[in-house]
Design brief:
The chain has one domain: Tetracycline Repressor, domain 2. The chain has ten helices and no strands. Helices cover about 70% and strands about 0% of the residues. The longest helix has 26 residues. It has about 200 residues and is mainly alpha-helical. Helix 4 packs across helix 5, helix 5 runs antiparallel to helix 10 and helix 8 packs across helix 9.
Length: about 200
């Protein structure tokens, strides 16, 4: 990795940390240049525009999510994999950067750009959320095929329920029951997954 590549990677890492705290919409050329100790022109040499940098940060966030959440959760058993996935996902940015005030950058970006339907950022973050939702749904389908989950279980409904429990947790953990939020979230996930299992 040459100097330019290292600098770009550093910008993306700082951008992920910054957007996990303040939101992607606050990521600007000036803010990132100051954070990374670069001149504005020095930072611009790595990206075509602010939007280009924001899109690159979202791509980087997804690569880190795959590396630090999806990969460690992999298991041959769909129930075990889903349990591990949500357990790791609960506080993944806090654990990754060892900073308690961080939250999920994808959710922040989705909320911030929700009304900007023609924005490339809205398109990208929506695609990212849809990919994750599809991944969860696929694991539920595998659980049904393996006889672990009830054959009458609707995979889309179950995935929606699980996914939205995380969305609620990502917001509530910073507003109510902060001290025990992650523990309660994991217990609720386990309760839901248990309720899906085939009792026969």
């Amino acid at each position: 990795m040459n100097k330019g590549e290292k600098t770009r990677l550093s910008i993306l890492e700082q951008g992920m940390r910054f957007s996990s705290q303040y939101g992607l919409i606050e990521v600007t050329i000036g803010a990132m240049a100051k954070l990374c100790g670069l001149s504005r022109s020095g930072l611009i040499s790595h990206f075509d525009s602010k939007e280009d940098m924001q899109l690159a940060i979202l791509d980087y966030c997804e690569s880190q999510f795959m590396l630090h959440v999806v990969a460690p959760a992999r298991d041959d058993d769909p129930l075990t994999q889903l349990t591990k996935l949500f357990s790791i996902w609960a506080d993944w940015t806090r654990e990754l950067f060892n900073e308690p005030h961080l939250t999920c950058p994808f959710i922040k970006a989705l909320v911030e750009f929700n009304c900007h339907t023609n924005s490339p950022i809205h398109k990208k973050v929506t695609e990212q959320h849809n990919r994750l939702f599809g991944y969860i749904k696929h694991k539920v389908e595998l659980g049904i095929r393996a006889g672990i989950f009830n054959p009458q279980l609707d995979p889309q409904c179950a995935a929606y329920e699980l996914y939205n429990l995380y969305l609620g947790h990502a917001i509530a953990k910073n507003t109510v029951l902060t001290e025990h939020a992650s523990e309660l979230f994991k217990r609720n996930i386990e309760h839901l997954l248990t309720s899906y299992t085939n009792k026969t």
